[in-house]
Amino acid sequence: MDYILAIDAGSSAVKFYEVPLGQGEPRMVAYPNKKSPPPLEEFLGDYLSNRPGDKDEIQLLALTGVGASFHQGQLGGIPTCQVSELEAIGRGGLALSGKEHALVVNLGTGTTLLDASLQRVIHIGGTGVGAGTLQGLGSKLVGTSDVTQLGKLALPGRLGMVDTTISDISQEVSPTLPPDLTAANFGKMSPQATDADIAKALINMVFETVGMLCFFAGKTVAAQEVVLTGGLSALPQAREIFDKFTLIYGLRFQIPPYSPFATAAGAALLAAGQILEKKN
Fold first, then answer.
1. What is the pLDDT of residues 203-215, one digit of tens each?
2. Domain assignment of residue 46, given as a range
3. CA dihedral (101, 102, 108, 113) positive or negative
4. Are residues 39 and 113 in the same domain?
5. Which of 53, 81, 119, 256 is 20 to 30 A off residue 138, Cα-Cα?
């Protein structure tokens, strides 16, 4: 069977997503990355050495992500093509969620917002707040830059030890300002705050920032469906925090299966579509 292998060459991680040209389950692998540009040949060699089957089954490498442009021509003896990262994010988010139109938000090193449909993907904007924010502040404040470890550390955390909430400053009740909503991130910062409290507040700050951007962007593009992709979407705190935005603002947030691999999935689907078009 023939396969397409997509590589999302991100600044924090390099993700591989392989699909058959036909029916079949995808194969996914992620490698942490701290180099710029990412050493794709090294990662590819490791991937192929652990992959069942012959390398010749892979018809094409679809390269996307910030590090993709550093690599032209063959990689590991396999032909490559370049896929627009924004197109890959949008199409991947739609494919994994089963939506035909949505605000697709990629929670990567920074955060990207796209108005995506099956006909076109439009870049709305974004923010530098994302995984890179957690890595930098996590390293300085709680001694770890590992985002997955931060998520685990934050599980028993208490936001009330770090953040100022609406109930701390007002007794008024409003549908858009519930008592437990954050009024000031890190506005309280109790001397008794633990690393778990601080880690939870860091994650809360990033997700609330993204949530508010989604609210305003959703009004601009008239979208009520938001699909969250990228590495941060897999953190255990994501569902709880974005569910709160659904209750307050009416946006419907979805975190699809394999959400951290959405960009690579989109690149694989776009490349597979090109190959099938040529065959037909």
1. 999 999 999 999 9
2. 3-84+262-279
3. positive
4. no
5. 256
